[in-house]
């Protein structure tokens, strides 16, 4: 792979070839500092062993970058349509650039996700939320107490 190739593309190719069960959540390149942060996810979660394994898979690009491999965390930011698609059924919070049905912030369950918008079930009904209008969206993690 050439140095001119997009680091995200390189990461996705290398991980996809070695571990198709791993989803590349995000790749953040800081070319000024030569740092590459790779956030991965998989069904059942990500542990230190998986991060170490993926670090080894990414060995071909470690000559160009100081590498950090981690999970996006439980309260991860939703920034791409595929993030919403993967998290349908889960609860998320939204802060909007433009109000949707008069609301600039709300929480709800992701019901469906398409290429341009996500449908969210809130306490007031369903909202169709265009991605272009979302300022910030975060997956919500709540501790459920057992009785």
What's the structural blueprint in terms of helices and strands?
Blueprint: H1 7-18, E1 23-30, E2 35-41, H2 48-57, E3 66-70, H3 81-86, E4 91-100, E5 103-113, E6 117-122, E7 125-130, E8 134-139
Parallel strand pairs: 2-3
Antiparallel strand pairs: 1-2, 4-5, 4-8, 5-6, 6-7
Concise overview:
With 147 residues, the chain is an alpha+beta fold.
Largest sheet, if any? Answer: 5 strands, antiparallel
Residue-averaged pLDDT: 89
Q: Give the DSSP E fraction (strand runs of 2 or more residues).
A: 35-45%
From N to C, what is the helix and strand string?
A: HEEHEHEEEEE
Return the CATH topology of the largest domain: GMP Synthetase, Chain A, domain 3
- Give the fraction of residues assigned to helices: 10-25%
Computed over alpha carbons, the radius of gyration is 17 Å
Structure notes:
- The protein has 147 residues and is an alpha+beta fold.
- It folds into 2 domains: 7-70, GMP Synthetase, Chain A, domain 3 (2-Layer Sandwich); 81-139, Roll (SH3 type barrels).
- The chain has 3 helices and 8 strands; from the N terminus they run H-E-E-H-E-H-E-E-E-E-E.
- The chain has a 5-stranded antiparallel beta sheet with strand order 7-6-5-4-8.
- The N and C termini lie far apart (54 Å).
Task: Give short descriptive properties of this protein.
147 residues, alpha+beta, GMP Synthetase, Chain A, domain 3, SH3 type barrels, 2 domains, five-stranded antiparallel β-sheet, three-stranded mixed β-sheet, 8 strands, elongated
């Amino acid at each position: 792979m050439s140095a001119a190739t997009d680091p995200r593309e390189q990461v996705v190719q290398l991980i996809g070839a070695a571990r198709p069960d791993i989803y590349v959540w995000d790749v953040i390149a800081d070319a000024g500092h030569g740092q590459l942060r790779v956030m991965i996810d998989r069904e059942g979660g990500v542990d230190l062993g998986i991060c170490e394994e993926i670090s080894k898979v990414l060995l071909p690009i470690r000559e160009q970058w100081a590498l950090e491999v981690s999970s996006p965390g439980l309260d991860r930011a939703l920034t791409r349509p595929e993030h919403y698609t993967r998290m349908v059924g889960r609860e998320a919070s939204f802060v909007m650039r433009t109000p949707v049905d008069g609301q600039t912030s709300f929480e709800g369950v992701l019901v469906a996700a398409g290429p341009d918008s996500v449908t969210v079930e809130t306490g007031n009904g369903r909202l169709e939320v265009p991605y272009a209008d979302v300022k910030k969206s975060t997956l919500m993690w709540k501790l459920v107490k057992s009785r």
